[in-house]
Amino acid sequence: MARSKAAGGGEGLHGPMSRRRLIGAGALIVPAVVLGGVSLRPGRARAATPACDDGDAPTPAQTAGPYFTPGSPLKADFTGDAAGEGAMIQVRGQVLDRACRPVGGALLDIWHAAPDGRYDNRGFRMRGHQFTDEHGRYALATLRPGLYPGRTRHIHLRAQAPGGPVLTTQLYFPGEPGNDRDFLYRDSLLMAADGADGFRFDLVIAAAAG
Q1: Which of 71, 143, 163, 190 has its CA 20 to 30 A from that of 47?
Q2: β-strands 198-200, 127-131: how paired?
């Protein structure tokens, strides 16, 4: 399957509902991030999201970078964090296990640079967590991230099925000139365009053992 996949980490997010111990305990869903899939370079159209195949590998893991902050608020709308500073976008998708089953109640912690390219490392602007709904869906309303020096445009996230391992990864935007120059960029983590101001990416994560 061409959809984006991710390898799990080792920390536990779920468990006793203590937000500080989770990567982000959270709310039920709002438009948010993911669809994985085929490679898209500037000038190429992206294919529709392929169907999930049973036994699919998880979404590839990537570094959290130096900017992850634990204890983010339950929040699926970042547009008020920098009102008037950037274009509004929607990121949404579905979280699935390796058998292609929706993962309800999965925890997602999401963060990215503000439209000016800066990360808020003291507060929680452009940071929040949420839970997928019973169909594994999530959605994020946010502002288009700015360019951080040395990197192409991207969104960070950490995901965890109830009782499962943590997946840390990054999602990338189609049509970005910086994609070819970014040493971390991977085609398998490229979001698909989803309407005029939306993007989609479906995550495949490891579920709880047993």
Answers
A1: 143
A2: unpaired
- Nearest alpha-carbon partner for 2 in 61, 57, 45, 41: 57
Model confidence pLDDT, tens digit, residues 164-194: 999 999 999 999 999 999 999 999 999 999 9
Question: Domain for residue 50, yes or no?
Answer: no
160, amino acid identity: Q
Dihedral angle, C-alpha 4, 133, 130, 48, nearest 10 °: 30
8 inside domain: no
Lowest-confidence segment of 15-19, 67-71, 146-150, 163-167 by average pLDDT? 15-19
- Classify burial at 145, counting beta carbons within 10 Å of its beta carbon; exposed 0-12, middle 13-18, buried 19 or more: buried
What pTM was estimated for this model as a whole? 0.77
How many angstroms separate the first and last alpha carbons of the chain? 24
Residue 145 is part of a domain; what is its CATH number? 2.60.130.10
What's the domain count of the chain? 1
